[in-house]
């Protein structure tokens, strides 16, 4: 059944199921064989639509290359690539409602639970054969696109978070790269120079602190509702806030006039930040004089933790070209296509074998990011995470700035979030 959250008032067009990639029957004599070969050569080309959001020119060129390779190997399938520049999910949902959705499209793990619930995505398990090797995907990444034992998408790539550190600042301060969160807090004190340089650049938002919030055994989301007022969650996040308000060895980008922690780090305003794979080419290209390294995120209470952000290819359940759509999806997320797509390092391969083949698991900068994939918390938790996320951020930043206690902020945020969730049910 379709989710009334975003399709109320709309009718659903009849889904026409079928394959356009049909074979030709053959006879036993030479004439029949000739006819079969002639028919195959003249088989009508199938066009399928692939929709996604925009990317950098370098990534766009990579995708063009992968799609060209696919079409060379599948001459009877033509891929029409559509770039949706603004309001991507709103446009996709509107098209799906109107029966004009693309055959294949990008889906962020953050949005996946809600869209899976509506029934607009095609379950993919019946299309998969042994050669596709599902076990090769990093487990947390693929689980983000599964529900009730069915798989609705295969991740095209991902990034975890890692600790980025300024080598020169560490050498001058005479400190080692922290391996625990307590060490990070202490090291930050030695690295901080008033308000000119902070030991640690922070992100005061749930997307970057979710794994920290759950490090004491609490849960941010329970039964698809906000639960971050739980004392265990508050207690886990308190040291993060205290480092800013009490130690004064941490700051957020806006405190130093930066737009994000990658820029803050590149400008030399923070000796450490926790960032993703996307920060590597940014820092190298924008701040080429910065010598930096990466390490796995410091442990909390003896446990490893990080976040993972991933996007999958999914199939429109109403597509009339499902077999062709699967051919495309299986190539893009297969070992060959994924190797080309991730060859420049803009995105990490969600397949373990591809990461190993490209050497990312042992890479000086990307190795720490790859190492975090098996234990990462994927940014995806139930259909109401968008509401939970927004309300958490609205109040958490006030606690981060010292306008109210963290306990008060998270209690208010939880109450508001759950009222909104109940109102839409």
Automatic annotation (TrEMBL):
Domain of life: Bacteria
Alphabetized InterPro entries for the sequence: SBP
Keywords (A to Z) from UniProt: Signal, Transport
Gene3D superfamilies, per database record: Periplasmic binding protein-like II
Membrane spanning residue stretches: none
Family label: Belongs to the bacterial solute-binding protein 1 family.
Name by which UniProt lists this protein: ABC transporter substrate-binding protein
Species for this entry: Cytobacillus spartinae
